[in-house]
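call fold(seq) -> tokens
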Amino acid sequence: MSSTPVTAANAEAARAPHVIRMAETDNPSQAIDARIEELGDWRGVTLARVRELIKEADPEVVEEWKWRNPVWSHDGIICTGESYKNAVKLTFAKGASLKDPARLFNSSLDGNVRRAIDIHEGEDIDAAAFKALVRQAVALNGSAKRKR
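ret:
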């Protein structure tokens, strides 16, 4: 019986099988489905939930797969959905320009453009406030498009 030695390269491949699967599809929605399934824990559940909220807030949202992450767009990027060991991070491309009365933004607060929401295990997100942020981002993208 032959065995494969554990190296940094094959250990990384074992930890990130989605890279191969998702590169094989031209369908970003399928890539996002695969990522949610691959996570298989609270992060997958959280990513699926925010995806649902984004689609409710903007039924015309376009799902994309960029930078090995889900991206939701409408006349420009609304937000990305990154998953880390301890958080699901939703980075809003123009978050610094959005009103956030519910104070959902809790990460990347020092930049002039982006803002992010880190959701940790056991945390829930205020659905109404989150959908309001998504709608604002869509409106902002649309106003920038009209100015061009």
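The chain has a mean pLDDT of 86.
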